[in-house]
Design brief:
single chain; alpha/beta; Alpha-lytic protease prodomain-like; Alpha-Beta Plaits; 3 domains; three-stranded mixed sheet
Length: 386
């Protein structure tokens, strides 16, 4: 049903890589969120006044903050859809991440406020009265929020949006919070025990956890999280499927927002390759990466002399020594220069506790012990282990 609706209202058949599709998904989710949350706020506020329950009133203001969050989502997707300009040559896609972060902050603020109100209710309990109209409002709110959660989650999956994922988590959390409020009021009426404050505190803890999870999901791409390991493997397989490429290293992916990612990588090629021929191969690989992964790629060539037995022997020795530091460490770009110079780069995992200088010193000492006449020049890079 949802897919049929999206195909009718979204351009390009709902293609996730279409900027217009992302913008319309965001506007659709944000507009629906504003309207529904304002209706829920009005209904719950009235129910809170009637029942005298702080948890119901707090839940009402939670919906008001959700409406504000939906406004942020609307604005975020509209601004993120702007074209690149002179001041922002990589576009405005990261605004979508900022919108998701803002929604996460609102979730956290609601959780803190609900916790404060709940503690006050625990210290100074008051009688609550659950009426049938109030129960109907809360039950309807649960159904609406569950529907909003599924709707936003579906949109999030379609366009891989952290902002809409945060909105979906918020709606699902609200449904749980309202369920707890309704259960608490019913228990208070039936058992004559005031659980309002304690239930509110439990809901606040869950809301805070959800807000933290959503904030982390939106902060990671802003701070520069590591790329998806499965995608890195696929990229490596694609590049190495070309026989002219012997190996790759120093793969970096920069995320400038959904649909705008740039990649750089070093590709090892035979030193005796014809420059024009290998350039054509690299151009072809860059186009493949764009078509398959939507990556604007820049590939740096590293020539490897496969015909020098001395260089091959030193590469094998350096690879053996670096594995003593960490089994996942690797060596690349080994070059033999004049006066015994041996230059190469070492890649060690971030988990290795040694500093770069300590790694370099350990390798220099071990290599010179085995090859007294060599003069090592070692570069150290860090990476994560797939």
């Amino acid at each position: 049903m949802l897919d049929a609706i999206l195909l009718r209202i979204l351009p390009d058949g709902g293609r996730p890589d279409s900027p217009d599709c992302r913008r319309r998904c965001g506007l659709l989710a944000g507009g629906a969120g504003v309207a529904l949350n304002l209706l829920l706020f009005a209904g719950k506020l009235l129910a809170g006044i009637v029942t005298g329950a702080i948890s119901v009133t707090a839940d009402a203001f939670n919906n008001l903050s959700d409406a504000a969050g939906s406004v942020v989502t609307l604005a975020g997707f509209r601004m993120a859809g702007q074209r690149a300009d002179e001041r922002h040559p990589f576009g405005h896609g990261r605004i979508e991440y900022l919108a998701g972060l803002a929604v996460s902050m609102l979730i956290l603020l609601v959780g803190l406020e609900l916790a404060r109100s709940s503690v006050g209710k625990i210290l100074r309990p008051e009688e609550t009265a659950l009426t049938l109209p109030a129960a109907a409002v809360l039950a309807a709110s649960i159904l609406v929020k569950l529907g909003m959660g599924r709707f936003n989650a579906a949109l999030s999956r379609r366009i891989d949006s952290a902002a809409l994922k945060a909105a979906a988590l918020d709606a699902q959390t609200d449904a749980l919070a309202t369920s707890a409020v309704l259960a608490g009021l019913a228990a208070s009426r039936l058992l004559h025990v005031q659980l309002d404050g304690w239930l509110g505190l439990g809901v606040a803890a869950f809301i805070l956890r959800t807000g933290w999870t959503a904030a982390k999901d939106t902060l990671d791409p802003l701070l520069g999280a590591r790329p998806d390991p499965a995608m890195v493997k696929d990229i490596e397989t694609l590049i190495l499927s070309h026989r002219q490429v012997l190996g790759i290293h120093d793969l970096v992916i920069h995320d400038y927002g959904p649909g705008r990612r740039m990649m750089s990588v070093h590709a090892e090629v035979p030193a005796r390759s014809e420059l024009v021929d290998i350039h054509a191969v690299i151009d072809h690989i860059e186009r493949e990466l764009d078509r398959r992964f939507g990556l604007e790629a820049v590939i740096h060539l590293d020539p490897v002399d496969q015909d020098d037995p001395h260089a091959r022997r030193l590469l094998a020795l350096a690879s053996e020594l670096v594995r003593d530091i960490d089994p996942a460490a690797t060596v690349h770009d080994l070059r033999c220069g004049r006066d015994g110079e041996v230059a190469f780069d070492v890649v060690v995992p971030y988990e290795v506790s040694l500093t770069d200088d300590e790694v370099r010193a350990a390798l220099e000492e071990a290599l010179c012990a085995r090859e007294p006449d060599c003069r090592p020049v070692i570069g150290v890079d860090r990476t994560y282990v797939l």
